[in-house]
Amino acid sequence: MQHWIIDTDLGGMPSWREAFPELQIAARLSEIAALNQAGIIWCRLRVDENIDAILADIDMTSGHPVVVLSDAPDEAVVMQALAAGALGCCNSRAAPEVLRQVATVVCNGGLWIGQSLLQRLVSSTAKPYGQRPKEDKNSDWEDKLSEREVQVARLVASGSSNREVANHLAISERTVKAHLTAIFEKLALRDRLQLSVTVNGLLR
């Protein structure tokens, strides 16, 4: 997997090179060769730059996931990045392990939008725990999960954090994460937002 970073500073940040030792940095996308390889295009957004301008020469239909590296990320910047066609937006100073996690998520078709915005989006689709849609009493998704996994799925879909789920069910956060991994796999979902949409009857 190749990584290309578009930035006027060709030196790059140490965290970028630690995360992706083979990355290439260029001031413009047109200066990058071998874009026929599979890879991710990362675009740095500085505080005084316009997001539409830095993404203007990128073909969002090229098959290469695009991620914005923002020097001052906030929910507005993330939403602008997604609206422009990027699959993610994260802090340009993120730790190497976070950058690698972002890469894994977007390469698997997911969106990287940050925990606070994800929580807000999940909450906007959520229904209180225990409140089921009338037509959802025998949901197909429930049949694919164990009783405990159904409990975890419903709590997460109601907007609960892993810690809140753990406290409610008297289990560890590690166990909650293990259940979520199994739930995502069994239901072929990528993230908490998709889970919330499915559990709350918004996806048919």
Your description of this structure?
Helix 7 packs across helix 10 (192-199). The chain has a 5-stranded parallel beta sheet, with helices on both faces. Helices cover 44% and strands 12% of the residues. The chain is of the alpha/beta class and 204 residues long. The chain has 2 domains: 2-113, Response regulator (Rossmann fold, 3-Layer(aba) Sandwich); 121-199, Rossmann fold, CATH 3.40.50. It is built from 10 helices and 5 strands, in the order βαββαβαβααααααα. It has helices at 14-19, 51-55, 75-83, 96-107, 115-125, 140-143, 147-157, 162-169, 173-187, 192-199; strands at residues 2-6, 24-26, 39-45, 66-70, 88-91. The two termini are 34 Å apart. The longest helix has 15 residues, at 173-187.
Task: List the defining traits of the structure above.
single chain; 204 residues; alpha/beta; Rossmann fold; 2 domains; 5-stranded parallel β-sheet; 10 helices; 5 strands
Gist?
This protein has 204 residues and is α/β, with parallel strands linked by helices. The protein contains ten helices and five strands.
SSE order and pairing:
Elements: E1 2-6, H1 14-19, E2 24-26, E3 39-45, H2 51-55, E4 66-70, H3 75-83, E5 88-91, H4 96-107, H5 115-125, H6 140-143, H7 147-157, H8 162-169, H9 173-187, H10 192-199
Parallel strand pairs: 1-2, 1-3, 3-4, 4-5
